[in-house]
Amino acid sequence: MDGPLRTVERTMRLLSELGASLEPLSLAELSRRLGLGKATVRRFLLSLEELGYVGRDARGAYSALPALGRIVAQPAAAVSRQVAGELRELAAETGTGISLGVLRGQEVLYLWREPPGSAAGVVLGEGARLPAHATAIGKILLAQLAPEAVAEIYGDTPPRAFTPRTIVSLPLLLGALQEIRRQGWALSDGELEEGLTAAAVPVYDRAGGLRWALNAASPGHRLAPAAFATDVVPALMRAAGRIGAIES
Question: Looking at residues 89-95, what average pLDDT do you find?
Answer without folding.
Answer: 93
